[in-house]
Amino acid sequence: MTNAFLEISNGEKIERKQIPHLSFNDFHKNILNIVEGGGKVVQYFGYKDDDSSIKFMAVLRTDKLLVTGCDASESYPSLAKTCEPFHMFEREIAEQFGIKPEGHPWLRMVRYHPNYQNKPDVFGNDYKEDIPGNYDYYKVDGDEIHEVAVGPVHAGVIEPGHFRFNCIGERVLHLEIQLGYQHRGVENLLHNVEAKRLPILAENIAGDTTIGHSLCMAQAVEALTSTKVDKGAKIIRTIALELERLANHIGDCGALSGDVAFLPPANYFGRLRGDFLNLSLLVCGNRFGKGLVRPGGVRFNMDDGIRATMNERLDELIPQVTHVLELLFSTPTVRARFEDCGRVSNFDADKLGLVGPAGRASGIGYDARREFPTEHYDKIDIPENKKPSGDVYARAKVRYDEIIQSMKIVRSLINTPIETECVNTSNFDLPASSFAVTVNEGWRGEVSHAVLTDKNGKILKYKVKDPSFHNWNGLAMALRDTGISDFPLNNKSFNLSYCGFDL
Amino acid sequence: MLNTLKNRFEQGCKTNNYPKEKPAVFERYRGKPEINKDASLEIIEMCANACPQDAIDKDLKKIDMGRCLFCGTCERVSNGKFVTFTGDFEISTSQRADLLTDGDLPALAEHSKQHFKKLFGRSLQLRQVSAAGCNSCEADLNVLATPFFDLARFGINFVASPRHSDAIVVTGPVSRNMKTALLQTYEATPDPKAVIAVGSCTISGGPFLGSPEITEGLDTILPVDLFIPGCPPHPLTNLHALLSFFK
C-alpha cells in the first residue's frame, strides 16, 4: 500500500509527479483492498492529460486521504461489480469519456450528453435527438405489478428528476431515480471560463450548498497558489457554513412536519428558515451566502454592529427553534409516522457509501468536520451524531441535534470580535502540473472538489462532487418495501440535490 | 395540545404588511443598481472588466440586470464611484430591454398587458417549472408560501398541474435536457396565459453563460411577460413583481 497511494492532507498542494501512476490491474487491486477494508471513495474520475491520453484518478479516504492514478484503456473490468460505491462514478466516466466498465451491473446514462472524446456512445444514444426519458428502466414483471412514473416536472416547486416506482399494490418493490435534467455543463465551464467567473460558478453548482461548494473551491485555489487566509476569515466562513446548515435543516424539519400533516411546525419552521437565510444576508447581502467566500478569504467583514444584530436575532430565534423542535418531536402522531419508516440498515448504508446526515442516521459516524477539519473546525468540538435506527425518525433526529449544535457554534463564534482583511481580488495564478483535493462537510454531507493543472498552469480537470452523488441510492433503498404514499416523507428526509448531482 | 398552543402564542403573527409598508431589509442587501453617469471612463472600464458576468455596457453607461448577479464586484472595485446597489428590491420589468438600466426603471404596473389584471387580479394560479439552475430561485419562491409573506392572502397560489394554472413561472437556464418538458408544460397551460422568468439564469443564462447545454434567455423560446432579475431574486422582489403586474 505504501507505494500504491500517496497520503495527502485536505487542501494540500501536490505536484502531480508525486502521485503514484500504476498499471490498471494494480490500481484496481489496491483500490479494492482499501475499500474492502472499510475505506470510502471521495473522488474517482477520468481526465485528459497534457499528452491527450485519458487517465483515471481516485481519491479514497480511510482516516487519511489517499490518492492514486493509472492509464485508462478502452474498457476495463468494473469495480462496481464488487464494490457498490463505484457504481455512479463508473457510469459518469463512461458517459464523459466513452470508456466501458465491463461487467458493470447497471450501466446507464447519468446526464444525457455525448462524451468528450467523439467516441461512439457507450449507451448507444444519438444525442441529436431529444433523449431524456428515453431510458431503459429496471422492470419488475408479474401479476398485479404496476409502475408509477413521476417527473421530470413535479407537483411542487422543486427541481426536476424522474422517479420510476415498481409496485405491488401500494408497496414499493423497487424505485429507480433517473436524473440529468438539470445538467448545465458546469465542469466544462470550469475548464474554460475566465478566472473571474470561477467563484461565481462554484456558488451556483447547488444554491442551497453555496457555502459548501464555495469553500471547496476557495480552499483548492488557496492551496495551489499558497495563499494564506487570516483567522477572522476562517471564522466567518465557519459561521457561514453553519448558517447554511441551520437554514436547510430547519427547512427540512418543517417539510417533514408538513408531510405528516402536522401543520404548525411546518409553518413555523418555514418562516424560521427564512430568518436564518436573512442572517446570511445580514453578513454578505445574499440570503444564500453568494458573494461571501472568495479564494484568499471573505469579501465581507463581521464588525461589531453585524455581530450585535446577529446576537439580537439569535436571542429571539434560538428559543423559538428549540421550542418548535420540542413540539415536533414530542407529538405522538409525528413519532408514529417517523419511526420505522424507510429504514436503511447500517449494512446497506455502509455498502452504498452514504454520507452526511443520511449516513449518520444509519450509524455511520463520518463527519468531515471531525475527520478532515478545515477553516475553524479544528478548534470546535463536533459530537458524533450517529443514530442506530436508519429510519425517517433517525434522519430527522440527526437534524434536530445538528440544529442545536450549530446554533451554539454560531453563538460562541460571534461572541468575540472578528477581524479580517476583506478580499477584493483573488490570486488565480495556478502552478503547473499540480493537484489539490478539498473536502468539507456541507449540510448534506461530504462536498469535495479536485483540481488538476496542466504543464502551463491551466485547469486540466475540475471535478466536483456533491454528497448527493453518493446518497440518491440511499433514498431508493429506503423505499424498498415501503408504502408508495410514504415517498414524499422519505424524499424529504434525504432532501438531496438534483443540480448538485447533475452539474 | 398545551404545547401546540404555547408555541402558537410564542410565534405570534409574523405576516408582513407589504405592499402597504415595505419590510426592512438588512443594509448589505444589494437591490437596484444606480449609475453615476459622470464617472470617468477609466473607472467605468475597470468596473466592466471586473464584472464576472460582463453585464456592464461601457458605451451606454448602463448595467444589464438580466445578466447581473448582484455580486457587487463593480461597486467594490470602484468604491461606488460608478455603480452603487441600493436597498430597493422593486426591480422587475415587463420588457427584457428595460433591464439594461442606469437605475431608472419604468413603473411595472403600467405594462402593456393590462387585461391580465382583469383576468387574474383576484385569482392567480401559478405553475412553477424548474429548468436547471441552482435551486435557490425555487427556494425563494417556496418561501412566499410561508407565514411571513403569505402569498395566498393575495389570491395567488402555486398549483400542481399546468392545467389548473394561469401562468408558468420558469427558473433556471433551460438545459437541453429540460427544454422539451418545459415546452410541454407551456403547451398544457390553457390560454390566456402568462410566462414569468425568475432569476438571471432564466433571463440570460446567468452564471452558465456560454455553456452549450443551456438556453441563453427564456425569451428566445417562449414569449415572456414578466422578468424578475436577481440571483436569486429576493422574495420581496418576487412579491412586488406579482402584485404590480397582476393586481
Summarize the structure.
The complex is a heterodimer of chains A (503) and B (247). Chain A has helices at residues 24-36, 87-97, 186-192, 198-203, 210-225, 231-259, 263-284, 304-330, 332-338, 346-352, 356-361, 368-371, 392-413, 468-479, 487-494, 498-502; strands at 6-8, 14-15, 21-22, 40-48, 54-61, 65-71, 75-77, 100-102, 145-150, 162-168, 171-178, 293-294, 297-298, 434-442, 445-453, 459-465.
How is this structure best described in words?
- The complex is a heterodimer of chains A (503) and B (247).
- Chain A has 503 residues and is α+β, with helices and mostly antiparallel strands.
- Chain A folds into 2 domains: 127 residues, no CATH class; 228 residues, Orthogonal Bundle (Cytochrome-c3 Hydrogenase, chain B), CATH 1.10.645.10.
- Helices cover 40% and strands 17% of the residues of chain A.
- Chain A has 16 helices and 16 strands.
- In chain A, strand 7, helix 2 and strand 8 form a beta-alpha-beta unit.
- In chain A, helix 7 runs antiparallel to helix 8 and helix 8 runs antiparallel to helix 13.
- Chain A is globular and about 60 Å long.
- The relative contact order of chain A is 0.15.
- Chain B is built from 8 helices and 10 strands.
- With 247 residues, chain B is an alpha/beta fold.
- The radius of gyration of chain B is 19 Å and the shape is globular.
- Chains A and B meet through helix 3, helix 4, helix 7, helix 8 and helix 16 of A and helix 1, strand 6, helix 5 and helix 6 of B.
